[in-house]
Amino acid sequence: MALHDQTRKSASQDSSKAASGDTSKAGSGDSKAASGGSGHIASRLLGWYDMHHRDLPWRIAPRDLARGIRPDPYRVWLSEVMLQQTTVEAVKSYFRTFVGKWPDVEALAAASTEDVMKAWAGLGYYSRARNLKACADLVARQGGRFPDTESGLKELPGIGAYTAAAIAAIAFDHPAAVVDGNVERVVSRLFSIATPLSEAKAEIRALVECMVPDKRPGDFAQAMMDLGATICTPRRPRCMLCPLREDCSATVSGDPEHFPVSLPKAEKPLRRGAAFVAVRADGAVLLRKRAEKGLLGGMTEVPTTGWTARIDGATTDAAAPFPGDWRPAGRIGHVFTHFALELDVFKTATDCAAPAGHFWSLAHEISGEALPTVMKKVIEAAIPGATKARRV
DNA sequence: GAGGCGTGGCG
DNA sequence: TCGCCAAGCCT
Fold first, then answer.
1. Which residues form a coiled coil (predicted)?
2. Residue A105 CB burial class (10 angstroms; 0-12, 13-18, ≥19)
3. What is the pTM of this model?
């Protein structure tokens, strides 16, 4: 409560600036004060965004929005899906590749799922790629236009609460409450929310709903995220540069990094297995496709044991794709979201036909396969340089 | 609703 | 080195 008083105080000190765009969302008893303070916050934040916003390949800058240039919902959607749990830097090159190959939703709908998976390889969370393609198919079939409401957007595959709100706000200028990890961190600090983040989601959402301005809601959403990404960072936040430092309870209290409060996490178990790199005389490598669902669903892999297998002679021979002179070629490690993996890599030369369910990938095709990073590590251990892009 | 689902960067 | 975590969604 004392934390909210901080905002109230700020609001009353500057009530004239707080007047724009806030009243309609007031709901609870103290929401009038909160929305007044939040209008003030939105105003300061937008002023900061005008000066310090990041230029991103999918973003329309405030000055261009002011000229009447509108964002392309397709590009907003594509970028938001790519950005789910993924850093901006990782997304940039993938975004450019995708809009180059598939400049609109009809083009993406006309592509094969296989080509989409190949283009997504390395970005992670591969169900996103499958949902992306399914969503493009749906939208194209319905005339090529994305729904312009949160509820309509949320019905599409791969679009949840966050992404629906982000598209509604950024592409369609709707006053949606866009709440992602950045926003949760910023709000946790603004109000020094001591409740663990996992239990504070609803409270944070309500606070954001009070803050969203009627004018420039899309810029407001992006400003909150830019602030979280560049100023209000998880560690060592740059509070001296923050446009909201005078409004921020955590800064005043002296320990912004303490927020958001999180619960201790479970340990990651270690799994082990073996991987088998068969190399033909012409450099082709034996691969297979994983099941459509589950871990690395629909992606391509090197033949492996199960990932709980003991590594000994008997297990290895039985699990190899064919009997042969399998020689140790090193060990690779990889950490997934919920477990760590160590794979012993074995290698052999062969000229046999591909076993059922397997295929040979020619040397110059390997870099274009839908190989997740863990599988590129396996192949690199056996054949250094094999997965790097080849000059034609 | 809790857990499955990738990857790379950073302090 | 290693834990944390980044514009979450789905079941």
1. none
2. buried
3. 0.87
Side chain identity at residue A362, one-letter code: L
Chain A 120-159 contacts with nucleic strand C (CB below 7 A) = 125, 127, 131, 157-159
Residue with CA nearest to B5's C1' atom:
A125
Q: What is the residue type of A72?
A: D
Q: Please give the residue range of the domain that contains residue A288.
A: 270-382
Q: Using DSSP, state whether A360 is helix, strand or coil.
A: strand
Q: Which SS3 state, helix, strand or coil, does residue A343 take?
A: strand
The per-residue pLDDT for range A113-142, each reduced to its tens digit, is: 999 999 999 999 999 999 999 999 999 999
Residues A294 and A330 in one domain: yes
Residues A320 and A191 occupy one common structural domain: no
Answer yes or no: do A103 and A204 share one domain: yes
With bands split at pLDDT 50, 70 and 90, how would you rate the model's confidence at A286?
A: very high
Q: In this structure, are A78 and A170 located in the same domain?
A: yes
Domain for residue A56, yes or no? yes
Of A234, A258, A282, the residue at which a domain comes to its end is A258
A277 strand-pairing partners: A347
Q: State pLDDT tens for residues A79-106.
A: 999 999 999 999 999 999 999 999 999 9
Residues 236-255 of chain A within 7 A of strand C, judged by CB, are none
Residue A45 structure tokens = 């934040």
Give the count of domains, chain A. 2
For the stretch A330-345, pLDDT in tens is 999 999 998 999 999 9
Asked whether the predicted pLDDT for residue A384 surpasses 60, the reply is yes
| CATH code assigned at A199 | 1.10.340.30
